[in-house]
Design a protein that fits this description.
Belongs to the ABC-2 integral membrane protein family. Keywords: Antibiotic resistance, Cell membrane, Membrane, Transmembrane, Transmembrane helix, Transport. The protein has 282 residues and is mostly helical. It has 12 helices and 2 strands, in the order αααββααααααααα. Strand 1 and strand 2 form a beta hairpin.
Amino acid sequence: MSDTMTGPVAATVPHAPGLPSALRLGWARARVETLMFFREKDSAIFVFAFPIVLLVIFGSIFAGQVEGTGISVSQVYVAGLLGAGVMTAFQGLAIGIAMDRDDGTLKRLAGTPLPRSAYFLGKAGQVLVSSVVQAAVLLAIGFTLYDLPAPEGAGGWLTFGWVALLGVTGSALLGVAASSLPRSGKSASVVVTLPFVVLQFISGVFVPISQLPDWLVRVASFFPLKWMCQGFRSVFLGEAGAALEVTGSYELDRVALVLAAWVTGGLVLCLATFRWKGRHDG
């Protein structure tokens, strides 16, 4: 007797209720990840307070205007720290996923019906929320304390939106890929944080990009943070701020091209390098 049912018999077999879509499960997972993030109050406070403290310190030490531009140094730092804030998606995911792998969370999730894509959507949702909150806090401080100019019209906000979106997407994908580099969850913080800090210093966050040696500018130009900072400076510093760039222009077409390339490259790296099991799991 054939195991295949056809005709009227097959039609009478009830369909099992389908599982929720991966997108819906990813949304639910994002809520869980976000709640877990904010419940770790010490960590959450540090994440949001760190760029604020740096802004106040550097803005106080290097008070005054950038010569010949009419732009205050504090305004330059706000734009740069916005880029660094978006890039924390890289740091947060690389460390968080490495710890999930080390403590067996990834292995357990891989054995459940939860679509694997839902896990990544959840992680991405959490870093997106934290990036938005961090950007809102920095902008509020910039507007109220440092007279940061608002973006010019809808076009300025549109530029802010696509730079932030491409930046956080590329950073998140790179974070997923980089999570496979640490040998354990305990070493993840050191392995990931060091290159991130170095990138901030060579990408125009703390030191004006035009004051860096040419070879450092070439190194920074390979990574997305330099282009994110450049895009945000174009939004908030206007034409006067273009004099601070190496080429004397914001090169927004190139900013879009490089950030989009990192989104594509980050996805390829994720697919090629991501591991669900730790190095000692066999």
